[in-house]
Design a protein that fits this description.
The protein is of the alpha/beta class. The protein has helices spanning about 20-35, 45-55, 60-70, 90-100, 110-115, 145-155, 165-180, 195-205, 220-230, 275-285, 325, 345-355, 360-370, 375-400, 425-435, 465-490; strands at about 75, 85, 190-195, 215-220, 235-240, 245, 255-260, 290-295, 320-325, 335-340, 405-410, 415-420, 440, 455-460. It folds into three domains: about 15-100, Winged helix-like DNA-binding domain superfamily/Winged helix DNA-binding domain (Arc Repressor Mutant, subunit A, Orthogonal Bundle), CATH 1.10.10.10; about 140-375, Aspartate Aminotransferase, domain 2 (3-Layer(aba) Sandwich); about 375-490, Aspartate Aminotransferase, domain 1 (Alpha-Beta Complex), CATH 3.90.1150. An eight-stranded mixed beta sheet has the order 3-10-9-8-7-4-5-6, with helices on both faces. The protein binds pyridoxal-5'-phosphate. Pyridoxal-5'-phosphate binds near residues 223 and 335.
Length: about 500
């Protein structure tokens, strides 16, 4: 009797293995066939002999042989020992060559390569720390009220509903956006998505072909750049002036223009009505779509908020994008787009294709939360809180780091931009702040094309006054120490950002 199983099959008995005897024998016999240790035509011992050699029950061996025979690895015939199946068997050959060759990485799509290369999102490991940006203060959210809305909605939610955009939320949200943001739309134009980012992705997919030109603000929102890049667009950064995207005198003709007109991301600048009209006129002339990202404009502190660009649009080319992740809290995972009327049906179909659907219960809960006035009340409360935190951060930065920073006080939103003089390497500053327990984002990371500024993008919304004070003191300390060590070193060019920079003008902190 050939004892080929010795040395090939190594069974662990009892609690030594987490796998059953059957599973161990199956895996090891199959692997030996695939890697050629048991070659085609080879006869393995009978089930009785196998059981004897391995010291396991014959039933166990028979079950494994039957399974391998069913899968085509073994030929069995009455009264004969099982034989390893012929190599011509295609499935077996494929399995053998896969097992022998060093696996080659699977090619991925252009989209995935873009995702791989993208430096967005700027993720920090661990829980958020002061002064992380674009974060609402979930600690002040009325979770009990929200839980009641969710519970009621979950009880009533349909188990099957062809309407992926629920009428209840479309109606409630539209009323809110008409009153507070001056949008003009019908309910059917509202597409409810799991996030604003998902809405940007869908818009890019629907509107753009590979190579189409898309403009983004520079500096601007990395998520928009990433979504457009991944859609294959040729993304061009357009510099800003005091009024936002500065496109006058340009001769290129974009298919899509992405803007954050209410609080430019990251400068916080407001695009005045005159620039909005110019932008709409230009888009009309060249046939471009405008994507208006109104991500945090619920929160406005000085003067009256300017109504959405979408409300000024007469030609159906503005896509309005918003999110509940800033006005409520990020994990509510709900955003929306208002699309032009003639594309509403196509968008809903595209939405269904990607299954970008917010659960019906969440939609109904949001509708109730808005209809019963809780949403507006929360925004009123948080506007007061965030205004006072903005002022507090301005004062604290002025006190601790006023010599190094030139701040653009934002009229609204959840973060501010503090410019550094051009000789600073803002990524180095951000890295040192991270070591000291503070989260900031480098302005230089927000450019598409030439980097023309250095600075720190700092969130104030999610952090209370004590947290803000501590963070500002750390910022002052880190900048002070970096400045002192620069003075001690002989003059050398700034490291890090290789391209020349020039600081935009802004009021002193
Ligand atoms: C400017 C801007 N737009 C859109 C978003 C995305 O929001 P959401 O969390 O809904 O994807 C963010 C998120 O930080 C943002 O900063």
């Amino acid at each position: 009797m050939d004892d080929i199983l010795t040395g090939l099959i190594d069974i662990e008995y009892g609690s030594a293995s987490s796998e059953t005897l059957t599973r161990q024998l199956y895996n090891q016999l199959r692997a030996s066939i695939l890697n050629g240790a048991l070659p085609p035509g080879h006869r393995i011992p009978s089930s009785r002999e196998c059981a004897r050699q391995l010291g396991i029950a014959r039933n166990t061996v028979s079950a494994v042989i039957d399974q391998l025979a069913m899968e085509g690895y073994l030929d069995v015939a009455q009264g004969r020992r099982p034989t390893v199946a012929a190599a011509e068997d295609k499935l077996l050959l494929a399995g053998r060559s896969i097992a022998r060759k060093k696996p080659r990485p699977l090619p991925v799509s252009h989209w995935a390569e873009c995702v791989r290369k993208s430096d967005w999102p700027f993720l920090n490991s661990g829980p958020p720390r002061p002064l992380a940006t674009v974060l609402a203060d979930g600690r002040l959210f009325p979770h009990d009220i929200w839980a009641r809305c969710l519970r009621r909605a979950a009880r009533r939610a349909p188990t099957s509903d062809p309407a992926i955009n629920r009428a209840s939320l479309r109606a409630a949200l539209l009323r809110h956006l008409i009153e507070h943001r001056g949008v003009r739309a019908e309910e059917r134009q509202i597409i409810l998505m799991p996030s604003a980012q998902a809405a940007l992705e869908l818009i890019a997919r629907v509107l753009l072909d590979a190579g189409d030109l898309a403009w983004v603000e520079s500096p601007g929102y990395g998520g928009a750049r990433a979504a457009l890049d991944a859609a294959g667009a040729a993304v061009r950064g357009i510099p800003l002036d005091r009024n936002g995207i500065a496109f006058s005198g340009r001769h290129d003709r974009p298919r899509l223009i992405f803007v954050t007109p209410s609080h430019q991301h990251p400068t916080g600048r407001l695009m005045p009505v005159s620039r909005r009209q110019q932008l709409l006129g230009f888009a009309n002339e060249v046939g471009a779509a405008i994507v208006e990202d109104d991500y945090d404009s619920e929160f406005h502190y000085d003067g009256r908020p300017v109504a959405a660009l979408q409300g000024l649009d007469e030609s159906g080319r503005v896509f309005y994008v918003g999110t509940f992740s800033k006005s409520m809290f990020s994990e509510v995972r709900s955003g929306y787009a208002i699309v032009p009327p003639d594309l509403a049906d196509l968008f809903e179909k595209a939405q269904r294709h990607g299954s970008h659907i917010v659960p019906a219960a969440v939609q109904d809960a949001l509708a109730e939360f808005i209809d019963d006035g809780h949403f507006a009340a929360h925004i009123r409360k948080m506007t007061r809180v965030y205004r006072s935190r903005r002022d507090h951060l301005l004062q604290a930065l002025h006190a601790h780091a006023g010599d190094h920073l030139t701040i653009e006080p934002p009229a609204g939103g959840m973060q501010l931009l503090a410019h550094l003089a051009p000789h600073w390497d803002d990524r180095d500053v951000v890295a040192r702040l991270a070591q000291a327990g503070i989260t900031a984002r480098a302005l230089s990371q927000h450019f598409t094309g030439p980097i023309t500024g250095a600075g720190l993008f700092l969130g104030f919304a999610a952090w209370n006054e004590t947290e803000i004070d501590k963070a500002a003191a750390v910022i002052g300390d880190v900048l002070g120490r970096m400045q002192a060590s620069r003075r001690r070193r002989p003059a050398a060019p700034a490291s890090g950002n290789r391209r020349p920079r020039q600081s935009p003008a802004g009021p002193k902190a």
